[in-house]
Amino acid sequence: MKKLSLLILAIVFAGMAKAEDGHQLWLRQAPVNKAVVTGPECIAAQELRTYSKNDVTLKLDPTMEQDAYRINNGVITAKNEIGLLYGAYALLRGETTGSKPFYKLRILNHWDNLNGTIERGYAGLSIFWKGKPGERKFRGHTIFVEDPDQPIDANLIKEYARANASIGINGTVLNNVNASPKMLSAVYINKVKQYADILRPYGIKVYLSINFASPMSIPAKGFNKGKVLKTADPLNPQVKAWWKAKAKEIYALIPDFGGFLVKANSEGQPGPFDYHRTHADGANMLADAVKPFGGIIMWRSFVYGAAHKGEDRVKQAVSEFVGLDGKFRDNVILQSKNGPLDFQPREPYAPIFDNIKHTKQMAELQITQEYLGQSRHLVYLAPMWREFFGFVAPEKLVGIAGVANIGLDTNWCGHHFSQANWYAFGRLAWNPTLTSEAIAQEWLDQTFEKPDGQLLSVMLRSREACVDYMMPIGLHHIFAFDEHYGPEPNGFIAQYPIEWCPVYYHKANNDSIGFNRTHTGSNATAQYREPYCTIYDDINTCPERYLLWFHRVPWTYRLKSGRTVIEEMEYRYTRGVNEVEDFIRIWNEAKPYIDDQRWQEVDARLQHQLHNANLWRTTCLDYFKSFQEKSK
Ligand code: GCU
């Protein structure tokens, strides 16, 4: 009897040990508390003492490059404690040599609002900002409002810091690019200081998104007796003085504050155009304010509908910025999305990277899967980002920003496999030449106890599958309005800007489909450097994955496969759905190797993904086929 209960207990414990909710991310190693670690006492030493199986020596060598580390026979050498920390995590995941980061700036952008919600967040509420129910309602839902009195969750932020440090991320923008001016009020700057203090030992600097019109509603310490201004004109001396005072106020509390991220004159945000000034006027004014403290300005090029209203949307960033190239201060960086439209499952690269030559540039990648199934689809994004680096040489950029997919969900990212995208972003920001495959394998090895070999194949095929079942052969932005999840190819609302309407992008009628962006159309192809300009412009050389992005073709047009446009669509949509079916088969086969909770949770999402992929196929094919019916 006694033996039996012991056995039952053992089984229960074994089961408990295996229960995993994903909160530990890829840092699931059990403490071994065995290693003797010598050298400076720091977080790296603590981590190694807890998790390393072997003894380690830590050494400082000030001649080494910032953030680089060397590993040699149980000795980690680095310039400072942060380098040692990177070395420690590398050693723990099995690296045996050394490494240095490709980019100095490896930054997460959180689109978190002060009321606790997250723009395009699919993993719960913000880990940084908490709100409370307000009095107003929208469509029957209570609207949350800011509540600066709520305490911060220091433990959670420490876990966040550790996860980021383990993959080399060294900066974080704590709030949405659609920024509230309140972010710069004293009460919130104090909170930012608390976050900065927790993140600093992990090598992570804090940055803030700012609202360009902040001087008109928020006082700055020591400025104008606390009065606000009537203008935010960047050339106005009072406005300049306000920003200088604000910078001083921030840096007094956070001496290593990173700087500002700015979305100006885009989608309704205020900016220098409001005063007939240029992006350079706006960016330089802010750059001057943070320069004495070593701060930077990341100025976004995601603009449309302002200065070049009516022009093909994908051309507008180049049109707005090309004439300003070289006119920015040296602490301004132009931050551009990888594609010229908006984080679609597949876009050609953004030609702004070809056109800007005398201004520092950063790429903005989107980790949160706004247009790739959100936290409900298994889509591994590294292949998409690697595709981008195939066109834009990593050396052209000074840094990488990633729109974070992190929220209060227990597993941080909603979908267990979405964690791989956070991981891959960090690893690519460290080394953009790592392969998608190597990163996925690293992540799988650390995330699952016994990763089944086929899971790697699922991850590597998942992005192409998503393109197939959502928007094959160059279709783009045919998403349901605003939610950007399901299909709405017939979407058109007269009151909306036309650039929000799916019909603007595919332009299907009874004869033809596609957006003519060649020299006979919007001439967006001319914004590309050679050879891409010529390749994309000519339908015979344009890769078919971009066909309807660059070309308008009759329904009778035959692709290289010999299939007509609609036949090719049918083939691709179906192929995408079949892929998801195969992912489910593989996931079923992996069941014996995966802990139960995570297996169940991923399984439920895969079932939903299949359902949604099918919906995309039927909705889009029915809609596009209807033109053929009408033309008969
Ligand atoms: C997309 C997204 C918005 C976001 C914008 C941006 O349009 O849907 O929510 O604010 O990009 O990057 O500024």
UniProtKB/TrEMBL annotation:
Residues 98-391 form the Glycosyl hydrolase family 67 catalytic domain. GO terms for biological process: xylan catabolic process. One of its GO terms (molecular function) is alpha-glucuronidase activity. It comes from Xylanibacter ruminicola (Prevotella ruminicola). Keywords: Hydrolase, Signal. One of its GO terms (cellular component) is extracellular region. Residues 413-629 form the Glycosyl hydrolase family 67 C-terminal domain. Residues 1-19 form the signal peptide. This is Alpha-glucuronidase. It comes from the Bacteria. InterPro entries: A-glucoronidase_C_sf, GH, Glyco_hydro_67_C, Glyco_hydro_67_cat, Hex-like_dom2.
